[in-house]
Design brief:
127 residues, alpha/beta, Leucine-rich repeat, LRR (right-handed beta-alpha superhelix), five-stranded parallel sheet, 5 helices, 35% helix, globular
Length: 127
């Protein structure tokens, strides 16, 4: 069984090895943590990011994502965490090149959050 430490080490090595080539990342792991997402900032060509089943992510991950200046699409639609807040989602407004954001189900505030993001990112499709 892989431990969190082993996964982080593998991810760190992969990011270092492939930093100049990777444009798309899809992470589907319930052991993925905020510090793993932070490593992805080292991928300067990353344009597409999908995070699914990542139960341990928090607003800190969204802060790291908000600093990925080349990101064009972000899919969080299958994110399985209660630790992501409205404030965290608003950090995504820093993504000036973003064309599409798929949000997780947000309950009763979903329309309000989408409207706020749409106002600050008028050229972005928010689903």
């Amino acid at each position: 069984m892989l431990t969190d430490k082993a996964i982080n080490s593998d991810l760190r090595a992969s990011v270092k090895l492939c930093a100049d080539y990777v444009t798309t990342v899809h992470i589907a792991s319930d052991v993925c943590r905020d510090r793993d997402i932070e490593l992805l900032k080292q991928l300067p060509l990353l344009t597409h990011l999908t995070l699914t089943v990542c139960k341990r992510l928090t607003d800190e991950s969204l802060l790291h994502i908000s600093k990925m200046s080349s990101l064009e699409t972000l899919d969080l639609s299958s994110l399985c965490t209660d630790a992501v807040t409205v404030s965290g989602l608003m950090l995504l407004s820093r993504l000036k090149k973003i064309e599409l954001i798929r949000l997780p189900f947000l309950g009763m505030k979903e329309d309000e959050i989408k409207a706020k993001l749409q106002r600050v990112l008028p050229n972005t499709i928010i689903k």
